[in-house]
Amino acid sequence: MRRHNLRRWSDLCVTAFTVLTLLFRPSVAGGSAVSSAHREEIRVYAQNPAYWEYGGRPVLLLGGSVDDNLFQIKGLEAHLDLLKSVGGNYVRNTMSSRDDGNVWPFKKVDGQYDMGQWSEEYWRRFENFLELTSERDVIVQIEVWATFDYYRDIWLRNPFNPRNNNNYTSQESGLPVEVNSHPVRTGNNFFWSVPAERNRRTVLKYQRRFVDKMLSYSLNFGNVLYCMDNETAVTPEWGKYWSEYIQAKAEDAGVCVQTTEMWDPWDLSDPKHSATLDHPETYSFADVSQNNHNTGQTHWDNAQTQRDRLGDKPRPLNSVKIYGADGGRFGNDRDGIERFWRNIFGGMASVRFHRPPSGLGLGEKAQASIRSMRMLTDEMSIFACAPHNDLLSGRQPNEAYCIANPGIEYAVYFPNGGEVNLDVTGLRSPAALRWLHIMKNEWGEPQRVEGGNRLKLICPSQGHWAVLIQ
Questions:
Q1: Does 3.40.50.150 match the CATH number of domain 6-378?
Q2: Cβ(299)–Cβ(292) under 8 Å?
Q3: For 151, which DSSP code?
Q4: Considering the entire predicted model, what is its pTM?
Q5: Running DSSP on this structure, what letter comes out for residue 160?
């Protein structure tokens, strides 16, 4: 296939998808041969590029999961079945080996890792994970480099640490044997190996080998999104290198992939986020998970500012980590649920509850939120709607949030009861109004309302509520 400029990436996606729906593709560099059925690709929704499309239809990504490196957990199939049963279709997967019972990607020989040989169990788990998620139409957001695995105590166990492998020394690689600082200080040369930075070819050789092996499996499946890092603070050149590398490998294989980077700053206006938000030629979507450290009206405003920044060239904004759980470090249960709902009402393309203890995972409250969100959005044309707090009046900060297709349908989310006025002057005929008790997954009886004026919305009680007017 002729090499395309990255700015024409979306055209390539359409071409590749058309070919792959007709043909079987052989294995990619050692991965299992799969039919075109596995290549139903996730891609940007052409009719509204703020959202995703999968299986020929627009799709809203909702999720929650018990861990980050999901391919390594026990009981994976049951966990995915539970997610699917409540309307979920989205998980995060770091290529990480930090937890008890995990295996690393390389084989150990005489007590040292040989990065020229693979751990069969690591890659078996990964392929099984891709199979199980694909069968259930669950979208996977992979994080290629699990940043925290390359610092502090986990770095002491990592095969890339020169102390742990027989492939290079610290002097040959330029890598330290100890890194006691937080990743935000970018103290590990591991993340500066690319040619545009320190050009550590000895390290880059094995980094590329790892990515090639990962792609030999993942490129066989179309339900995968690619995020380069987790909460990174390094140079933009690192993420750009790997995004372009993965895109090129995908193009060589005749398929299309979607890539992003996740930056550390909580403020989305921080210059680091510019590398994703302002560079669609490098990244086809942006992950804005770090905004989910913020609360209330600030959380909403921060995201909307960046959404407006994209202007008439929207792209999907994903939130693969919704923080907030009682006993966690980043807010309580209420914060987590509010962030989840504000994101979708704010026009985000995906939300996923972060794993405990920092998030609600797939616990009962997460299940209730996912189920109710699916109940609501299945009843409306969410992909034709946009955030419309401008239609609300008599509103206090963080009291209510609106997403609407004015004149057609309106939905309002109340974090904790309250009352506001909704401008429905665009409605030229009577409409039906229904309240949804979010935590009970219960619709109220429909009510008839008149259009052409302002509608006073009074929550039935305190707590999380949504109302739909059509």
A1: no
A2: yes
A3: S
A4: 0.91
A5: T
